[in-house]
Batch of 2 targets.
Target 1
Amino acid sequence: MTQKNRTPDGLVIVDKPSGFTSHDVVAKMRGIARTRRVGHAGTLDPMATGVLVLGVEKATKLLGHLALTEKEYLGTIRLGQTTLTDDAEGEITGSSDASKVTREAVDAGIAKLSGDIMQVPSKVSAIKIDGVRSYKRAREGEEFEIPARPVTVSSFTVYDMRDAVAEDGTPVVDLVVSVVCSSGTYIRALARDLGADLGVGGHLTALRRTRVGPYKLDSAKTLDQLQQELTVMPIAEAATAAFPRWDVDAKRARLLLNGVRLEMPEEYAGRGAVAVFDPDGRFLALVEEHKGKAKSLAVFG
């Protein structure tokens, strides 16, 4: 491939279709972008749709740092039924009349699941227990426990509450919700735990991710659109959107690229990854402050 038509380094913001795994989307993008160097920042369950951030070429080195950012979702929780997977993909494992559940009880349940909480991920998830994926253990009928882990649910809002009747005739309640949360939060676990707290069970029936860090749905493209025209957000633009920016002079830029740990201004202390740019606006590296010096996380210059 010539330099002229080489795939640019950058991010591709995909509106993932339902039924695709995150890996399916990566495989598809490898074909569209004509490169093996494609990765994703944080998985999205097959049932879910919406923002999936992919990195192409050098931008794959950004992904681990982007995966740690805040996420935003729109979803539908069905109260009155539990499933094996805590979402609509799994078989129904229990039904209970939810018609008596009040809005006050729902709000009280949501309050308990907001803020800094300990969450037990769904058993049918990609989390590894002693080196084996949790979903593999679950499918083989193993009995096992997943330890609870700290997550932050900064916003959990109910937009609508509708009475419905499930296919088996059970009176259920569907909640349309939005959630803003930290990386690693399972929305289907929130649905499961809300239903359990209300005594009727619950699972997630629809989920759409509307934001990953600064990248929103309005800048996402479907795979069909990307097949027509590959839209890559240049790596410098992607870094500026996601991280604090530190502009250095030409001398410091040279030193940094030669592995010298520069003194960092105090304003960047404790801010995590920081994007460093040279006087020409070239994105050089991701660094973080360590004892007043710039510790390199990934070099791009």
Target 2
Amino acid sequence: MYDTPHIVGAADLDPSEPDLLPPEPAAAGAVRPKPRVEAVTWGRQHLHVPTSVVAARRSTWLATEPERPHALHDSWWIIAAVALVASSLIAVVLWISAHVDVDPTLHTVALFVHLASLVLGFGAVLVADYLVLVWLSGRCTLAEAIGGASRLHLPIWAGLVGLVASGALLEPDLTSGLTRIKMILVLILTINGLQALILSRRISQHVPIPLTPRLMGWGAATALISQICWWGAVWIGFWNAEN
């Protein structure tokens, strides 16, 4: 009823066809080699490049690329360009103050912003100088003093910008000699703050070793100019308000 399958024996195999012969039994204790598995790749095959060549090419590529963009404290030329722009902005503010009529309400708001900016900027300057005095007294390390002072750059500049911008709406008397001196002090203060960025970077590079006399003198002169300009501008502003 059903066809019985034909069992192929050794006698039925043709010796002329070696692919049809059964494999020979392995010897006892012999280790069969593992079948080689070919790696399956998709798409175009690429040539194998040695790791040393790849590392050399990568180092060459990275050497031609800048590590980071230039910052203000990287070049005196950048500082000079920014100082020129700042001087131009101060001149624009003076022109606005001479050609804009301010109503009492806007004058009151500008006065509040002016005082708040004074507290912010001048207060941050005093704290930065206090940290330097703490280091000189031996109560903290130079790294701690520089780290704390560097975090005060933003409030110092924010206060200075707020003072200049709000001062344009306070109707300053530009014919007064004291007012002109105050504007000169603000300009010197701005340039001094810009060059202090390079000073801060130079000092941070010498933190593990003692500072050179040149850096010490540079830092002392920067702090002295800053204090003279801030206190001078505050005193002239107070004098103009009282008289």
